[in-house]
Amino acid sequence: MLLDNCPKVLDHQQEMDAYHKPANSCGEAMKRKREPPWLDLRASGVDDMPVASTEERLLALLATLEECQTFLVDRANAETARLLSLAILELRMELHKVTDSELKALCDMVASERQLQEPATARRFPPYLKLVK
User: Dihedral, CA atoms, 9, 10, 15, 20, nearest 10 degrees?
Assistant: First the structure.
């Protein structure tokens, strides 16, 4: 996988490997209990966390996702980078408490402004590709 070479992903994998190592040298299934790494989202307990701590974790996750997206774009993996951009958008919306309807209203407003800015000759011809819902 392409992200396996991303430094943030590698760091996180090493933290997770250290967290899940057996407590003794015999390699038994017993695991030492300790605090999970700050980026472990599987059992994050976000509902129980103070707001500032939750926001800090989301900001850290956002920075990691953006770094991974940049890594993917640099490696010419545009489709995966686009998928990751959707996750980044969702996270930003959660951080700024933007609802889906507010985002749609903003997109509609931007689209209508673009149509007004297009020259009259460009609007005369129908588009070759049309989005079908």
Answer: 100
Residue whose structure tokens are 């590709």: 129
Residue where the block lists tokens 């007004």: 116
Q: Which residues contact 12 (CB under 8 A, 6 or more apart)?
A: 37, 39, 64
Q: What is the C-alpha separation between 19 and 15, in angstroms, rounded? A: 6
Nearest-Å Rg of the Cα atoms of the chain is 22
This prediction's pTM: 0.49
β partners of residue 41:
none
Helix (H, G, I), strand (E, B), or coil: what is residue 22? strand
Q: 99: helix, coil or strand? A: coil
29-64: per-residue pLDDT in tens?
Answer: 445 555 444 455 545 455 555 656 888 888 999 999
Tell me how far apart the alpha carbons of residues 89 and 85 are, in angstroms, rounded to a whole number.
6
User: Pick from 52, 51, 34: which is nearest to 43 by CA?
Assistant: 34
Quickly tell me which residue has 């057996």 as its tokens.
22
Report yes or no: 17 and 36 within 8 Å, Cβ to Cβ.
Answer: no
